[in-house]
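Apologies for my clumsy wording, but are you able to produce some protein sequence, whichever is easiest, and the C-alpha cells describing how it folds?
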Amino acid sequence: MKKTIAAFDFDGTLTTRDSFPDFIRYAAGTPRFLAGFLLYSPLLVLMKLRLYPGDKAKEQVFAHFFKGWEYKRFQTLGQAYSSGIEGMRNELVIKRLQEHLASGDTVYVVSASIREWVEPWCLQQGAHAVLATEIEVDADGRLTGRFKTRNCNGEEKVNRLLQAEPERSTYRLVAYGNSSGDTPLLTFADEGTLV
C-alpha cells in the first residue's frame, strides 16, 4: 500500500482566522498596525478587486512593518506568538490532523504565512514539516523586507510540496484548505477537503 501524506493549509483551516494581520498587530502594536493598514488600504482594495497582485501587496505590507528588523528579534517574536494561536484553533480540523498522525501518516502544513510564526505552533501539534513563505535576511542578520521564496499560495503550494515529496506516484495525498489559494493543492490531491 502507498503511504499517505496529509497536507493542511494553516490560515482559516487549522485556525479560525488569518494570522498575517494578527501577527503584525502582535509585533507592531495596535496603533502602528492601524496606521499601516490605513496607509496601505488603497492597495489592499485593489488586491481584493484582483487589480493588483496579492503577492506583491503582501510583500509591501510586510516590508512596511518589518524591513530592517534583526532576524533574531523577529524569530523570537514568532515563537512567542505561537501561544496566541491556541486562541484561534479550528478544533475539527486539528482533530483530523491528529487522526492522520495516529494512523502513521506524514503531515505537512503548507502555508502562505511566514514560517517563523507558523512553524513553532505546527510542530507542537505534531506536523512533520512546515512549508511556508520564507523571508530574506541580509548579511548583517536583518530583514530586507523581501520574500526569499515565492509567496506559498496557489500553485506554489503544489510546487513546494513536490519539492519536499517529489515521488508523487508513491503516495496518496490528502489535502485540506479553505480558500481559492488552496484550490490547486486540493485539486492535485487524491482527496481534497474544502473546510
User: Anything to note?
Assistant: The chain has one domain: 3-194.
